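Lecture 7, part B: from sequences to assemblies.

Below are the input chains for today's worked example.
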Amino acid sequence: MVTKAKLKTSLVAGAIVLGVPQGALAQDTIKIGSVLSATGPASFLGEPEDKTLRMYVDKINAAGGVNGKKIELVIYDDGGDANKARTFATRLVEDDEVVAMVGGSTTGTTMAMIPVFEDAKVPFISLAGAIEVIDPVRNFVFKTPHTDKMACEKIFEDLKKRNLTKIGLVSGTDGFGASMRAQCVKVAPNYGMQIVADENYGPRDSDMTAQLTKIKNTAGVQAVVNPGFGQGPAIVTRNYAQLGMNNIPFYQSHGVASKSFIDLAGAAAEGVRLPAAALLVGDKLPESDPQKKVVTEYKQAYESATKQPVSTFGGHAYDGLFILVEAMKRANSTESEKIRDEIEKTRGFVGTGGIVNMSATDHLGLDLSAFRMLEIKGGDWNLVASGS
Amino acid sequence: MAEFLQFLISGLTVGAVYALVALGFTLIYNASGVVNFAQGEFVMLGGMVTVFASAAGVPLVLAAFIAVVVAIVIGLLLHRLAIEPARGASAVTLIIITIGASILFRGIAAIIFDKQFHKLPGFTGETPINILGAAVQPQSFWVLGGAAVVVVALYVFLEHTILGKAVLATAANRLAARLVGINTTTIMAIAFGGSAAIGAIAGILVTPITLTSYDVGTLLALKGFAAAMLGGMGNPVGAVIGGLLLGLLEAFGAGYLSSTYKDAFAFLVILIVLFVAPQGLFGRRVVERV
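Predicted structure of the full complex, as structure tokens:
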């Protein structure tokens, strides 16, 4: 029988024995930070990102870590609040002393955190959409998601192939819709596009027939593009069919690239085209596609671990984490500046968002091939064969 | 002409929903002097409960009935647990309570249901009907007809039943109503239950057109409130006309002027009306009648 005193002694001894190597282990970890909007209004972005980072850091550590060192992940939740994000960014840099950061779910939180990481010279791979994050190029800031400008270009490229040049825009006035509309207007001349109708709707409007009737009655409209996010595009699509405009080709943005859009718009969504990441159509990609392996593996891993359908947002976090891990392997160092240099040298990285080729002037590294043009047919996505 | 008709019907359909929300505001305002900012949440409940009940296999009619009952129960609870205990408080305090309640309902709905958008099938199909060149969803007629039925039913209730007259009496003078033996607490409860039911019906009718989610109530409450102010707070006829007018202003504003500024345009007209007639279009008549 073990007496109380004996038990106490052995516990203390055990703690001493176990405690020493634990301290030593802490020296052998690489600290990576993250600030995500895992709760709050942007949780649809932050939640899959959070799950993805945790899942893959565990996987990397189980496989032996990076350069023989385990990754220690420090994640803070900013709740979508840019002020909180900045506070957490300072904490990551000053208290946690992370070597790099993968995070920043929204453009707002990212922009608030950029000065902190720039000052501290810590590489920051953002998961936010807007082009402002990397334009102008900042030394330590990178990002993984496609920009709305690329979505416009992809749509215009497709329109050009179909010899359609006179377009109508119907855009949401929310941040996403307004930003993409501005980018589309900006790049339209590069593709010989002429915007003959330009209408807007509020993000919570429940009826867009007035705007669409106006576009319908505008002479010469050959195609309509709807930059928007949330339920707005679903209502626009339904109104589009209601007004019998299906004979005019209709383009949505990557903002609606989720199954729920097809569910909400129903039969009205038939024939709608949109640019989207390969992740959505992983099972439909040809075997020869370089992204096929990455996207199907990520989709399977994410869905089996979380029991939720895969989203492109989690994919951005996957890309950010592995761009960083590869850079650390190449740098064979945990010095922030060396890691930064290697991130910038990322070439031919195959991620869920596309094939990344960064350079000193391009901290995103994606080209238009990262987007696939899809058409909704039979209630499902279908890849549009180029030139059709 | 076809264009005009298209705008007209779009405006009336959206306006009918604003009118129903405004009616809910009016009913509670009349009985208690409180502007109930949780009114939009009743619309949300109507749509969301119907969506989730019918997704669980309940027939649509029964699901809609359940939704109305749920909304009424929540309306009564709101009155019993939040408004009644604060009986003596000023109107501003009570309004703040209803704002708090609306945030609470929204939060609970986000947890119990989800944060996704949902739709309902149109009650009588979704093939647009062509009226002189304007394409109209069959559901629009349900919304307009449903709103008309609710308005007539409310009118009959208020003007031709003892209970309805008791509501009007409470609205006119609460103390005097109590002195003649009217249980004003019950009347208040009826007003909250009634406007919850009206809100829920609006939510059910409009979901096939506009889709629904846990947070649709905020904007609808704002628009319904604007409609009620435009028509004259406290006047049911004013609420209906204010709602329809607001819907038409938005549709014609977007159609003929600029879709970017259509909301600004609608609110500008409301501001002008309120400058000229601070009581709203029909506000004065009520005061005189009382």
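Note for the exam: Chain A has two domains: 29-146+295-370, 148-283. Keep this in mind when comparing with the next example.
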